[in-house]
Amino acid sequence: MIQKKIAILGSTGSIGTQALQVIQAHPEQYEAYVLTANHRVDQLIAQARTHRPEAVVIADEAHYPRLREALADLPIKVYAGAQALCQIVEDSAIDLVLTAMVGYAGLKPTIHAIRAGKAIALANKETLVVAGELINCLAQTHRVPILPVDSEHSAIFQCLAGELENPVEKVILTASGGPFRTCSHAQLCAATKAEALRHPNWEMGAKITIDSASMMNKGFEVIEAKWLFGLQPGQIEVVVHPQSIIHSMVQFEDGSIKAQLGLPDMRLPIQYAFSYPRRLKNELPRLDFRTCPTLTFEQPDTTRFRNLALAYEALQRGGNMPCIVNAANEVVVAAFLRDEVSFPDMSRVIAATMAQATYLPQPQYDDYVQTDQEARRLASNILKSTSF
Ligand code: NAD
Ligand code: MG
Hints:
By secondary structure, the chain is of the alpha/beta class. It is built from 16 helices and 11 strands.
């Protein structure tokens, strides 16, 4: 196998650091060629000294002098700013770009990477939520694969291997249900950010952890599945499976269901996206059925977890509606993390933003940029008003 040169957008995050572990475990196959971060300059410096990439980028330009000085003794190129992220992914030596940034900010560099012909290992699901149609179109034009990193989509992708000619009846996305799975509405009203950040099965960045607690993460994954696998909304089902052992399933037209199982560990889907279509031997902990807990399944409750219903509604309406939901969600999650909104009110602000924002049935790139700005402004105003 030729060594793949990998650019990691968001190397200091949960996915980014686990991707570096995968690279470190397979030095003959992979090289960390570009590392990038938003603010965490000290962590980026430490990563650069360990992995010796060709280049590093810090999105927040205020940290540039410190980063440059700290790496001055090494032959590592140092850049700063959001635009530098878009430029660096176009480097001709890069084979694959792992999009492990969080939120809408991942869209633009992903577009640049696709246009430059890079394979995409996609962790940043917001990119597909916001602009799935555009991304698919670009990926087709530039003949680049979009390889899923999200564990559910990796599971579906693995179930589909060897099934090219066999139509899918439906996919079944599993959801852990998060820390509030068994909470009453009254308990949800009093939920604190510390409780929401305590995910039962996965250690992830703050934003996706809140999205998991509110089920918006699962709603986004439904939209992500539509674009990755070319499905209709009615073909995407969600089932709550609190143990997170079955990562997702595919049902074919003969009724047969294939599932992918394993311990919850993101290093496996990250590695599969890197090594696809091959599998690489590794030393990750194995699932042992003799000690495995009982696997259980429940219907998701869209009354307590309204975000899942809102995401399905956005998917049905199409156009820029998922982009509106994403922007409003980023605003309310940031507010929840500042203790400025209650847990259930996050959904109410998102629903009100969906009702007020300008709907566009066939958005182009510039429309997404406008929509994102408008929906953020609306959601912030709705949050400030008491009447929503
Ligand atoms: P995180 O918050 O731990 O890390 C985010 C990374 O992106 C950091 O390196 C940060 O510096 C960088 N970043 C954030 N905002 C940026 C900006 N504006 N410009 C440049 N860089 C920026 O998040 P995470 O949990 O690693 O999640 C990353 C993405 O992967 C998200 O889209 C998430 O939904 C998705 N994902 C994560 C997991 C998981 O297990 N953590 C699983 C599936 C999907
Ligand atoms: Mg997931």
